[in-house]
């Protein structure tokens, strides 16, 4: 089977959606598929920095490519919002028997609603330009892709429910398929107990953004320090300079905080080896790869119910689910883990066990079965 994976990003293995696209492609190739890619690297060769204008033009770049090359592929698996012009043209050049899958790495509509809610609450300021493209035209493009594709793949049940109820996508033309864990996160040693009296070692993994819960990170650290809880907080992958991030914390809590602005993806298991808790107060996630990677590394999550969290974090069993923006609940959960280290160790082991079977091999096998089913079924669109 010949498959084209299309994505509106450069194919950088250290980036979120591109990294999982490459991982899926490699896993499909291991299943016997011939996999090609079409990304910003192909649409804009030699260009290292991309803007909204490049994103706006990408569906038309992809359409030009498909006009020339679509007949080579059994399956076209393209990110949402990108293949709609070609579909509206009637899929010229495609094989008589083919399947077009549109793949969401986090539904833009649910993300936009969360972004607007945070703006109304005063957590961030949206540019006047936002409704013109990302908060307007781009949402229309994504809906067109979802309605016109043979099948849609989404990352979580919340996005699937929104697509069905609010966008009119038939439930039978959608599947929720999670990401897999890279090989580096398989077979990691079970968590070891911390030294008696040692600080609770807390990690946050993700960009230093309002939507990732940075205000809650600051407030929680401030409250824990004021309440006399012994802890350390390390922020991995902020993307911002250390001094800028540390300046957001009050002086009393700042000495407990460490910042790792960037890291290579392959380094994460080593970086998390000495951590105990993942604090994940995110407001919006398509999936939340950092969550499952941290759980595989033996960290117990204290997470908001975003992305994949409701599927893998069972409150009180594999971690703690806390309401979005509820600093009182978040601090209480962290403090309880600091005060009951025996319970902490049990939860860490349960968290690791909960994600151990999330392999790219299994995800590729599931994806291949979906492709085969679509190729056997008559198109109804």
Account of the protein in words:
By secondary structure, the chain is an alpha/beta fold. The chain has two domains: 2-180 and 359-376, Glycogen Phosphorylase B (Rossmann fold, 3-Layer(aba) Sandwich), CATH 3.40.50; 184-354, Rossmann fold. It has 16 helices and twelve strands. The strands form two sheets. It has a six-stranded parallel β-sheet with strand order 2-1-3-4-5-6, sandwiched between helices. Strands 9-8-7-10-11-12 form a six-stranded parallel β-sheet, with helices on both faces. Helix 12 links the parallel strand 10 (277-280) and strand 11 (300-303). It is globular. The model has no long low-confidence stretch (mean pLDDT 94). Residues 20-183 form the Glycosyltransferase subfamily 4-like N-terminal domain. GO terms for molecular function: glycosyltransferase activity.
Q: CATH H-level name of the largest domain... which superfamily?
A: Glycogen Phosphorylase B
Question: Helical residue percent?
Answer: 40-55%
- The string of secondary-structure elements, in order, is EHEHHEHEHHEHEEHEHHEHEHEHEHHH
Taken from the alpha-carbon principal axes, the silhouette is: globular
> In the CATH hierarchy, what is the architecture of the largest domain at level 2?
3-Layer(aba) Sandwich
Give the radius of gyration: 22 Å
Strand order of the largest sheet: 2-1-3-4-5-6
Provide the residue-averaged pLDDT.
94
Q: Please state the oligomeric state of the protein chains shown.
A: single chain
From the N-terminal CA to the C-terminal CA, the straight-line distance is 22 Å
How much of the polypeptide forms β-strand, as a percent range?
A: 5-15%
Number of strands: 12
How can the largest sheet be summarized? 6 strands, parallel
Low-confidence stretches: none
Number of self-contained structural domains: 2
Counting H and I runs of at least 4 residues, what is the number of helices? 16
